[in-house]
Hints:
By secondary structure, the chain is of the alpha+beta class. It contains nine helices and 24 strands.
Amino acid sequence: MAVDPQPESSQPVSKRRDWRSLTLIAILVILLCIILPPLVNLSHFDRRIAASISSSLGRPVHVDHAGIRILPTPALTLENFVVSESPAFGNEPVIRAAAVTVTLRVSSLWKRRLEISSISLDEPSINLTRTATGDWNFKGILLQAASIPTAPTDPTAPKAPAAPDRPRFPYVEATHARVNFILGNEKLPLSLTDSDLGLWQANDGQWHVRVRTTPIRTDMDLTDTGLLRVEGTIGHPVTAEPKSWYVLPLNLEFRWQDAPLGEVTRLFTGRDQNWRGTVQSRTTLTGTLASAHLHSDVKITDVRAADVVPADALTLSLTCAADQQTSFQHINNVLCTLPVPADSGRPGSITLTGSIADTHTFSGLDINIVSNLASSTSAPAKSATKATQDIQGIDASALLRLARHATSRIPAALSLTGNVVANFSLNTPATNMQFWHGTLHGENLKLVLPPAAPLSETLPDNQSPNSPPPTLLSQAAANPAASGPDILWIPSLTLTTGTQPHAAQKSRTAPVAPLTFTLQPVPLALGGAAPASFTAQFTPTGYTLHLTGTAVPEKLRAFTAGFPWLQDDFSATAENTKGNTAIRISLSAQHSWQQP
Length: 596
């Protein structure tokens, strides 16, 4: 009997129809996932969602609209997300973001529970506020978040056996954020822009934070301020009590990379200080908010003034350490060391020690600056008291090398040797009161001047064409054996400053005397019967120079040849007077620091 083959031939057709049906269903599901979420209205749940977030942050939260997204992962979308500020810190919101995406953890849906995987804020504006008493506005937010038991963010990290049902802390991120700083009621011009922030729970009792940002000023257009990176850990408070805030364990690292020195000066002072170079810094903070240790290394390469092209590259490396107390309200045990390379002789260093009693008003500032010889450029290991006792001064050639990178008018043939001892102090006993005092003392200074061209073709009667140029070294010089035609010996030089408060200035509202550094009279042997007297005054805006006494014109001109910025004012008298006869002089020069 014949067998009908029809049923066998129809089996492949049925399989093809099944696959087509499954494909069609999948396409319909995908289309529904794309089309339906915008049509789903969650406006009835806006307040409930905002209230839930508010309870987690401890701040009032407002959401204009809440939506749902299915692909690529289930998520809630929040529009116009605003976290309000506590009245104690002002009226501006803590956080404002046009769009926030709350991604749900898919695995939690199978367990019939809702667990958040990540919270993403797009272009948020964040305000960090510090009051006059040292309180920060995000203190309450961190304390509230820490009071909610959570497991580490990483899904592969094991949960604590005692609490296996704790939800995992979500990964919180902000892209292209702007961070503003408010001190009291004043919003500072310093801000962080184009910031990428990440916060997650690394393990039980510890958050991990990562920031990548660019510092700016809101009151000027800065072209490039380098890249600032912050990374480290913040421990959970023991309880939600306010006192737990001060025992938060901190371990943070701040790196500032490739910041142009000119833009850095504009960032902190509000104007270009005409310095160029590249700044690299690394700062670590370890401890708690109640008491922490700061250590910072700052390196500035190719340091120079904007209009100077030096013959060699100058690199400055500053090392600082300090202790902070009470949430950065007080800074103590400040110790900074700046090695100063010398053209000749032994290198030295400048050491700064001190403290700040109140960082909010900068009152109670007590700073001491000293110079001392250094056998190495390593970080100082001795105490501030020991550093003050070991004052030995620095080689004067180090100051000359710094000056060559500050101005292009110093002749290459000019050299300076000797010992310079500096000791300056700054005190601010109250707000708007600053008192400087101290001295810079130079000993056995030997100044080798470049040779000056003769003033005229006419020679004095007692000088032949083969005789050496006039000497600047008098018969009463400190070291006659080292005399030469272009050597000036200065046995002693003293620069002083003193803005000590007088009776009227002891009031907090009394005006403060302007900061002035005064160069005490320096005797100069310029060929007269008695040495000429050179004095100077230096202020933050400029300087004034005075030269009085008697001098031979040729020697006066040779002196000003070593200091070209003096020639503009001093050389006219020498140019108009010829011969080798001493004349009486009373010359003055006044310049601002902005002038060459």
